[in-house]
Design brief:
The protein has 395 residues and is mostly beta strands. It contains 1 helix and 29 strands. Strands 20, 21, 23, 27, 28 and 29 form a 6-stranded mixed beta sheet that branches. Strands 2-9-8-4-6 form a 5-stranded mixed beta sheet, with no helix packed on it.
Length: 395
């Protein structure tokens, strides 16, 4: 019997091995799922025009932010594609992080449509809440098929404030023209050195004669042992009788060195009551002022207030107008009449902005201080009544 030639055996063996190996590979492929690393994903470019979202900066380091302070940063988002890029504000990782699109670019704070080649800005604001390191994210949803969501990160470190004030205001709810009141505030400092108080003053010197200020270093027991507090001062405020009726417009200013100079401002809140009170449609009791708003110089405006007077000196009150601001503001005092049993007298005050008045802005801001009506009342305890007026006169 003749044996097969060696080369025929070799060819048959190779074919048989290939068939067996291929079969095993096919069986493994069908029975074993793909795992990461088996293949390398390749992004497939979308067909036709499409947007492409790009941003050179996706992380911003705030540095240090004081507790209660905030930092703001704007990230630029570009559309490098050839179709309109649709953006929508996504979620943020913390309630103290706010992300809005810049409204100056048009559109709303929540959505934005960016044409090809154009860009927009995302404003991210973060408020210091807890001492320590922070890292927060804000997301933006896009219609870019390559990147349907893009994340922007802000990070930094929250440090204790240079000082805290407890309470934050001098509250004086029991004031009257014949009685005073007292209040205190505690300043705790967190500087690199123990503080020194270099000056203590009032914001409005015109009424300084009715206020008395004093200070004393805090007792060590009143300085918190934690949070790196290193000292502080107890500020005492006393209000003397004689202030005019109406809201207090005063503040306390303390200048500290620790070792850098730090200014602490503490508002004084309260209202002085007495036998005189105002009422009427234009009277704003929350701000204790006359609110006329914006008035056209073509038409002018008019309203009526009522000055009510009670107490044993009510018959002596015969108001006269000392001054007004703006100067075009006219006030006519009417005849006082008893109300009810006669324990209260009501006096009408007719207030007019005549047509043709010159433009003026006394709306009641830092740049545009409120106007006022100053009355001489004749009351022995409240001889002068100054009434704030919020008004802007336009064309």
């Amino acid at each position: 019997m003749r044996l097969p030639r060696a080369w025929i055996v070799a060819v048959l063996s190779a074919c048989l091995g290939a068939l067996v190996g291929g079969g095993i590979t096919a069986i493994e492929a069908a029975s074993r799922p793909w795992r990461a690393g088996d293949i390398r994903a390749v992004a497939v470019a979308p067909r036709g025009p499409s947007p492409r979202v790009e941003s050179d900066e996706k992380t911003f380091e705030f540095g240090t932010v004081k507790v209660g302070g905030s930092g703001t940063h704007e990230f630029t988002i570009r559309n490098a594609g050839d179709a309109a890029l649709e953006l929508a504000k996504g979620a943020t990782s913390c309630t103290c992080t706010v992300a809005d699109f810049d409204k100056s670019d048009g559109g709303s704070a929540n959505t934005r449509l960016v044409p090809p080649g154009a860009s927009t800005r995302l404003k991210v604001e973060w408020r210091g809440k807890d001492v320590g390191r922070f890292r927060q994210q804000a997301s933006v949803i896009t219609n870019d098929p390559r990147q349907p969501q893009i994340f922007f990160t802000v990070e930094g470190h929250v440090v204790p404030s240079e000082f805290t004030v407890t309470p934050g205001v001098f509250a004086l709810p029991k004031l009257s023209v014949s009685t005073g009141d007292k209040a205190t505030a505690k300043i705790v400092t967190y500087g690199s050195a123990a503080p020194t108080l270099t000056s203590l003053s009032l914001d409005d010197p015109t009424s300084a004669q009715f206020f008395s200020l004093s200070s004393a270093p805090l007792d060590p027991a009143d300085v918190p042992a934690s949070d790196a507090a290193n000292g502080g001062f107890l500020i005492s405020l006393e209000v003397l009788p004689g202030l005019p009726i109406g809201p207090l417009r005063q503040g306390v200013r303390a200048v500290l060195r620790m070792p850098e100079e730090v200014v602490v401002e503490i508002p004084v809140q309260g209202s002085v009551s007495g036998d005189l009170a105002l009422a009427g449609a234009a009277w704003d009791s929350s701000s204790e002022s006359v609110h006329l708003g914006t008035v056209s110089s073509r038409t002018g405006a008019a309203t009526t207030l009522f000055l009510t007077v009670r107490g044993p000196h009510r018959a002596l009150v015969k108001p006269t107008v000392r001054s007004t601001m703006p100067s075009s503001l006219q006030v006519v005092v009417g005849e006082g009449k008893p109300v009810g049993s006669g324990n209260v007298v009501r006096i009408p005050l007719s207030i007019t902005i005549p047509p043709g008045s010159a433009p003026a802005n006394h709306i009641g801001t830092t740049q545009a201080p409120a106007g006022k009506i100053v009355l001489d009342t004749g009351h022995p305890d409240s001889p002068t009544l100054s009434v704030p007026v919020s008004v802007a006169i336009g064309p």
